[in-house]
Amino acid sequence: MGLKAKVLVVEDEPAIRRGIADALRFARFEVEEAADGISGLDRALAPGLDLMLLDLMLPGRDGFEILAEVRKSRPRLPVIILTARGSEDDRVQGLAGGADDYVVKPFSAKELIARVEAVLRRSAERPHPAGLLRLAGGTVDFERREIVLDGGGRRELSPREGDLLAYLAANRGRAVSRREILERVWGIDAEGLDTRAVDMLVARLRAKFGPPGDSAVLTVRGSGYSLGDTA
Fold it and tell me: Which residue blocks in 27-158 are alpha helix, DSSP H?
């Protein structure tokens, strides 16, 4: 039986890092380790990686900085944040920055492996709608996961940006609430969660369309978001 996937563990506490790595290897994952933010970012940007487990409090560069850099260069790489910082503000910042999941220490090896497998499964099973979606400012190519701009040029879509556009397209004609987006696009329980993660995702997506972005994804005051009319 072969290895399931390659996982990078970025954690500065040696005992915690070894425990995570041992649990992953026992579950038949290939594991790489990094003990600081600088080497962690270097390894995260290297080819062949399937998922990153990322601590927030790291020497060199903190986890939020690493997440931001990874989302620029490798928008499709799944990232799970591991941290003792369990406040809602930290959780919201992680989700808004593009993390796929957020696990608060202490956690069991069984829970961690279940979260890793769930994120990898969601990543592999993300919907890939066929065809093109015409919006103000450009055309979304779902198969290539990119926006072809009217003025020339292309902008790569992260999996979550593509998933959001696909979900809004499937529900065209109505406003989709932030809570529904968190639950159906992020796949998390949004009960009692006050977050601007959805708004920040929409802002990044609009920026990729350029000035017409506000017309591509509309804000429906008090209700959520919807797609604009086909240009």
Answer: 37-44, 63-73, 88-96, 109-124
